[in-house]
Amino acid sequence: MAEPKWLQNMNSEEYLKEDFEAKGKSVAGTTIEGIDKNDPEWLDKAAKKVNAAEGNDYVKLDCGLLTVNQIDWMLKNTFGELTFVDDNNQFLWYNRPKDPNYKMKAKRVPAQVGDTMGAIHPDVRDVIPNAKKVVYALRTKEGGHDDVWMPVPTGNLKELVLHYYHRVEDDEGNYVGIYEWVQDLYPFVKYFCETTGQKLVIDEDATTGATYRRNSDPDAQTGASTKAELEEKKEEVKPEPDDATSGASYHD
What we know:
Pfam families: PAS_10
Distance between the termini: 25 Å
Protein name: Oxidoreductase
Strand content: 15-25%
Region (Disordered): 210-252
Low-confidence stretches: 220-234, 236-252
CATH superfamily: PAS domain
Helix content: 25-40%
CATH class: Alpha Beta
CATH architecture: 2-Layer Sandwich
Mean pLDDT: 85
Structural class: alpha+beta
Shape: globular
Strand order of the largest sheet: 4-3-7-6-5
Number of domains: 1
């Protein structure tokens, strides 16, 4: 993924100290102890231990009163893929798609819920160091930043998959975790152009986007480019985890 310059210049000695084994506790006091975080049945075991609300139980929110089912239904139908990782670097939630055949852009499975950040990221290439960099940057609010935008090159100018990470704070401003939003932005751009009667053109004087243009087919109508299609075929033969900061790999 393409990192912003301010993120590239961070001190690796600092951000590599991020504890991806989630050995600590959340500052909010919400860490559930006594259960192996990487247990594929963590969700059911943890929910039972704390007598978690479920089904038609009501949940009083900041500006609303909903049942657990209503919250689930709403989030399953939310535009884009969402995840939440707490300040102890434990992956706690994602909005599983309503359509079981939907192919997620950042693959996640229910058995990953509860996993440590170390468990959900493959120890290949620079995936873990890069993930630690994003987490540390938002934990410390590096340079005043409370979010990170990372577009993923797809080899197609008609697709721009964005991984957006946002610092989550409690009412006192304390860091309590990160939520990630993953979505192809092109449908928004296409709708905007169709609605306003405008069109997209390549700016030959632009100082950014050169790599995207160089690896893309501007005449592509739908779907992925050959490069992306080849990667997808490789995944079908031998699935490789996405390098997203959260929920990146299958839980074995």
